[in-house]
Amino acid sequence: MDIKKSCAVLLFVLATISQQSGGQSTCTPASKLYCIVPNQLGTESNEFNALNEATGTVVSDLPLASPASGVIYTVDPQLKLSVPSDTTLGPVLSQRPETVGRHKMYVSVVYQYFQFQRVDGANLKSLPSVTKTSNLAFVTTNNLGLSVHQVAGYFTFGLTNRIDVSAAIPILDVYESFTSVGSKILLSSSSTQPTPIDIRNRGSATGIGDVVLAAKATVWKPASGGLAAGVELRLPTGDAQNFLGSGTIGVKPYLSVAYGKKLSFHGNIGYQVNGNTILVASSSGGKGQLPNRLFESGGVDWGARKWMTVVVDILAERVFDAHRIVIGSSAVNADTFPTIVAPSPINSYNRTDASFGLKMMPVRNLIVTGNVLVRLDQGGLRARVIPLGGVSYTF
Q1: Which end of the chain is more exposed for a tag (fewer CB within 10 A), N or C?
Q2: Cα(216)–Cα(164) distance, integer angstroms
Q3: Cis before residue 345, ω within 30 degrees of 0?
């Protein structure tokens, strides 16, 4: 995995720095990705912990395609039989209030690619760092390359015409590269020439991410659209120390509303509560809480043809009480260098994306989906564009 590699590179750099300064690495086990940054830079200060926290926050919230977002079945009041609905093929990354249908099974496989470029607006290709020991300063510019391939399988079963249950099982492949270039400078000495630093590393990891279980019930069903209440349970099944998962449980109750048939307006709101994870350092040095998040989305799906639906969405979330990263400065002898710093106190931020999708049904009950998610702001660890492709079938 990119993340794993980056961490490994950081760990290697930190280990080298620690050996040169006579220090000890404090992050264990050193083979894990989340130790790369602190071990490579020889520190576990808040500014570098924020990188791990940002990664854990993103991994626990990689966008998943909406279950039951394809062909849905309703009961014909005259025939008393389940028949395909004449609504659209549904949204891509937002929930819809309709359920898949009594005793119907929806299966889907979706692929997404994430190439992260920025964290809190800072360019991952040029993260400055000044790390000091009692007599040395390490001034480096760091290039962190991080990308994730995600393949997720979705399974939805209709318990009744108004209740369905779902499971999402993601498999992540993370690739990380890390380069640290700069100088080792002897403090309180202007006559000694700096020693060059040039450390490069890369690595990858693959495995199952955090499994998500969900249940949804339609509480109001008019002639078109409706209102549903649901809950998602994220299980810490992914290896958090290798950035395959969040390292903690998460619970997200939500509401979903929609109105219309051929032109359907939909909206979602939910709040996710998270537990404590190794990816977030508490004030006492132990596990801290993964930030809670408020989710909102709204958009329209238009059935341009019976076999084709165009989808546009705005997806937003508020991330509460999170460690952030900003670029500050640090004095070394008579010079001043830019460096990552952690603002205090911790604060909240927004993440907003636009989603553009197309769903087509080449044969009955088989849906082919394409989508792009486009970044609209800078909060957190962000990718500029996230492509999605998937296929689904309703039995």
Answers
A1: C
A2: 6
A3: yes
> Which CATH architecture does the domain made up of 2-394 adopt?
Beta Barrel (2.40)
| Alpha-helical segments (H) within 82-228 | none
Q: Quote the CA–CA distance of 316 and 296 in Å, as a whole number.
A: 5
Full DSSP string of 291-312: PPEEEEEEEEEEEEETTEEEEE
Tracing tokens 């950081």 back to the chain, one arrives at 10
Calpha distance 287→284 (Å, rounded):
9
| Cβ partners under 8 Å of residue 115, min gap 6 | 146, 147, 383, 384
- The whole-number pLDDT of residue 354 equals 97
Q: Identify the H or E element spanning 223.
A: none
pLDDT at 99: 87
CB 153 within 8 A of CB 109: yes
Contact (CB, 8 A) for 35 and 242: no
Structure tokens at 358: 């197309």
CB count within 10 Å of CB 61 equals 23
DSSP β-ladder status, 136-158 and 212-220 = unpaired
CA distances in angstroms from 220 to 225, 227, 256, 297, listed in the order given: 9, 5, 11, 20
Contacts of 91 (CB under 8 A, 6+ apart): 66, 69, 266, 299, 301, 311, 313, 357
Whether the CA torsion 253, 321, 275, 25 is positive or negative: it is positive
Domain range annotation of the chain: 2-394
Interatomic CA distance for residues 346 and 290, integer angstroms: 13
Contacts of 297 by beta carbon, 8 Å cutoff, 6+ apart: 93, 94, 267, 268, 269, 313, 314, 315, 316
- Average pLDDT, 10 consecutive residues per value, the chain (395 residues): 40 35 52 71 60 71 64 57 67 88 90 92 91 85 89 91 92 85 85 83 86 94 89 93 89 94 93 91 81 95 92 95 88 90 84 95 91 94 93 89
Q: Give, rounded to a whole angstrom, the gap between the first and last alpha carbons of the chain.
A: 35
